[in-house]
Amino acid sequence: MIRIGIVGIGFMGRIHFLAGQKLRQARVTAVCSRDPKKLAGDWSSTRGNFGPPPGRVDLQQVKRYASYDEMLRDPEIDMIDICNPTVHHETTAIAALQAGKHVLVEKAIALTPEGADRMLAVAKAAGKLLMVAHVLPFFPEFQFAYQVVQEERYGRLIGGHFKRVISKPDWSAEIADTAATGGPAVDLHIHDTHYIGLISGVPQRVFSQGVQERDAVSYLTTQYLYGSGGPAISCSSGAIAMKARPFIHGFEIYLERATLVHEGAMPLTIYHDDGRTETPTLGSSDPIDVFATEIQTAVDGVAANQEPAILSGQLARDALVMCLKEIESVREGQAISLSS
User: Fold this and answer.
1) Are residues 163 and 256 in the same domain?
2) I want to staple 123 with a disulfide (CB 3.0 to 4.6 A). Which of 46, 70, 130, 222 is the partner?
């Protein structure tokens, strides 16, 4: 049995807690928050953009810690699940790793590549797993596309376009705060860069154009430049739509013998080279089920003492670098090398 302690009871901490009720051979045994109301089970303030409405939570069977240091001293916790703001990920993860705990940390891994590098170094020195919770590959449409590309089921990846657009959220002031989250070009767009890195690797260069609001890039369109023979990949992402426009994400992925199309509530469709169309049967797209699959993957990694590739800390670090280079490209008006 893998015993999990969640630190940070905001929207994402609540989602991880709910997903934790669905795990096999694991359970959430502790939570940590500085808010006494949350430790008493009043999670009504943890509003977000999906999932059931917040309210009261039964914590009678769960240890409750106001002190993170005290939580880390608990020998009956195997994995710390970090759901606090991104600005605190580095210090929170390093403390857990040095305390001998495995770590699952919500995206983004950190706000700087240097911070991510320090986390990776401490994990290696401690002999513990540092896993980063990028949930997008666990949504059934994206999971299916990832598997198809990996297997070259319909031939090699030729190109693709990805989309992730929201209105300016009224449920999170921090998304626009670059000091706390990196702004939409990191906090939101990193879903895309992680997935692009997963299916096609890190490009040589990026070229981006975008919209800047104060110190944040709120929207951008990027070309990922892989060089001769590489796939032609692009993405548009950001918080730019008007309030009535619902959140939308999706892709068109071009393979040698098929095109995969998915957007919003539209089911994933395969367009075959012989003119047939197919809508495959996929797993549950309920967000709680999706997060449960993600956390279960981390649990299985801890049980086997082996990092799941899909939760790789290095891949998460690469995704952060891609976002930051795209922001640089927007500001400089030119293509930016990923090695610069």
Assistant:
1) yes
2) 130
